[in-house]
Amino acid sequence: MAATESEKCKFLIVGGGIAGVTCAEQLASQFPSDEIILLTASPLIKAVTNFKQVSKVLEDFDVEEQPHSFLEERNPNVRVIQSAVKALAADQHTVCTEDGRCYEYEKLCICAGARPKLITHGNPHVLGIRDTDSAQVFQKRLSSARRIAVVGNGGIALELVYEIEGCEVIWAVKDKAMGNTFFDAGAAQFLVPQLESAKPKAPAICKRTKYSTEACFVLGPEHQEQSDAERGELGSALGPDWHEGIKLKGTKEVSHKVHFEYQCEISQIYQQEEFTKLMKTPLAFPEHGSDQTESTADKELWPVYIQLTNGKTYGCDFIVSATGVIPNTEPFVRGNNLEVAEDCGLKVNEHMCTSAPDIYAAGDVCTTAWEPSSLWQQMRLWTQARQMGWYAAKCMAADTLGQSIEMDFCFELFAHITKFFNHKVVLLGKYNAQGLGRDHELLLRCTKGHEYVKVVMQRGRMMGAVLIGDTDLEETFENLILNQMDLSAYGEDLLNPNIDIEDYFD
Q1: Predicted confidence (pLDDT) per residue in 377-433, tens digit
Q2: Furthest-apart CA pair in the chain: how many Å?
């Protein structure tokens, strides 16, 4: 692997997202006399700020986009280099970058993230949203849009549909209810009314600092520059509240205007000229929701048309593909003996090691190959990216120093805090009864517009919970799940609003 310039380093990290930056900071604190090199293709890095340990496992933090100097000033022994990785030679412990340099490492941690899993490639009317650049491209396209189609049912789709104003949205959901990744049909039904009412006029103040780069944040219609996303160069993944500070408004004078098409996907995409020749009749936007009995023909012309698997056809300005992600394992797997999981992630063991010596991986790029706790599952979320980056650094340090290390406690229980439709959402353990089969029961408590509480029980023990709204139950339920106490005697009183369960069990 010849190169014009090379240098040696003890620790090399690839990726400027949450996992990579967290890994770099942790290593920098443990090895203050050694230089840590972080390679990133993006001009900005993602920094975790305002970190708060809510409970034993639950954590809350902000994610700020910052210039490289921010990380280097906080950690003088960290050097950030902006260049994409061209090749990895695992047997030579060497990484080469697009700018012609090579880095010979002792330990490498791959935190390259993931890219959108687009429903089709090369179509100018299909946009994937994964990083900051693509979010800015979306904003620019939306500003002149009357109607868009959204495909997908994960976190990005949920946040996107709620935040959009002034534009009709056709939302194609492959499941029976929205948000199937995060909650069940009952929780979805609790949140749906939020789409039918106006958004709060004064949103919460965004604490994240917004930086822009000349190439990717030029949004005025008079500019023709392409963003990195439009050129296909992906930055690090979006963090929480990614939509704050971005005006997501179309051309219409309406707040939310969303139409659901459940249990379907896009079967065909037509350009305007192609669709016109087919003499097909598209449907107008349903004015009375999904239950309308009469289908009205759409007489407007649209740049693109979608045909759904349920037989319906709609026109729109563009399509947002939010159907998941694919780990960025290229160019690391090429020519190397790195084991890859079925979801295309790099397999890692309980110490975040890949199948190649001295190569670790963390965040969206990896897939856990160890036998997980009965209360934990991997999901490609920013909370797990931070935890994995931190733990990977600890494992790299322990191996370097010849020390043993136990798996971090954060992998004992799945725990995630987020916000959907302006409601706080807490997910704990097997919150959707994942892997429990039919051997479980659900306890529910719902106050319309205020809170939704679901508890998953198995043989008298709490296995998971979904908490929507300010319930203040997260720490108590976390303890009950971790302790696996037999709660059979309490029955439905567990969710009795007249019983102060926090004080009872604390």
Answers
A1: 999 998 999 999 999 999 999 999 999 999 999 999 999 999 888 899 999 999 999
A2: 72
Map residue 13 onto helix, strand or coil.
Answer: strand
Residue 263 CB contacts under 8 Å (≥ 6 apart), including other chains: 173, 174, 175, 176, 310
Token readout for 96 is: 């080469």
Taking a C-beta distance cutoff of 8 angstroms, is the pair 75, 28 a contact?
yes
Give 170-218 as a DSSP string. EEEESSSSTTTTT--HHHHHHHGGGGGSPPPSSPPPP-SPP---TTT--
Map tokens 């980056």 to a residue.
Answer: 389
Q: Is 467 exposed, middle or buried (0-12, 13-18, 19+ CB in 10 A)?
A: buried
Q: In the chain, what is the straight-line distance between the N-terminal and C-terminal CA atoms, in Å?
A: 60
Sort 75 into a burial class: Cβ within 10 Å, 0-12 / 13-18 / 19+.
Answer: buried
Cα→Cα distances 223→112, 210, 212, 219, 233, Å: 31, 21, 15, 7, 19
- How much is the pTM? 0.85
- pLDDT per position as a tens digit, 423-477: 999 999 999 999 898 889 999 999 988 999 999 999 999 999 999 999 999 999 9
Write out the DSSP string of 64-123.
Answer: EEEEHHHHHHH-TTEEEEE--EEEEEGGGTEEEETTSEEEEEEEEEE---EEE--SSSS-
Residue 205 CB contacts under 8 Å (≥ 6 apart), including other chains: none
Q: Please answer whether residues 443 and 494 qualify as being in contact, where contact means their C-beta atoms are separated by less than 8 angstroms.
A: yes
Q: For every residue of 368-432, which 3-state class applies, written as one string?
A: ECCCCCCCCCCCCCHHHHHHHHHHHHHHHHHHHCCCCCCCCHHHCCCEEEEEECCEEEEEEECCC
Tens digit of pLDDT for each residue in 238-274?
Answer: 555 545 555 566 666 666 789 999 999 999 999 999 9
- Taking the C-alpha atoms of residue 213 and residue 43, their distance in angstroms, rounded to an integer, is 8
| CA–CA gap between residue 163 and residue 206 (Å, rounded) | 14
DSSP 323: S
For residues 473 and 453, the answer to whether their CB atoms sit within 8 Å is yes
Question: How far is the C-alpha of 352 from the C-alpha of 346, rounded, in Å?
Answer: 10
Q: How far apart are CA 216 and CA 136, in angstroms?
A: 8
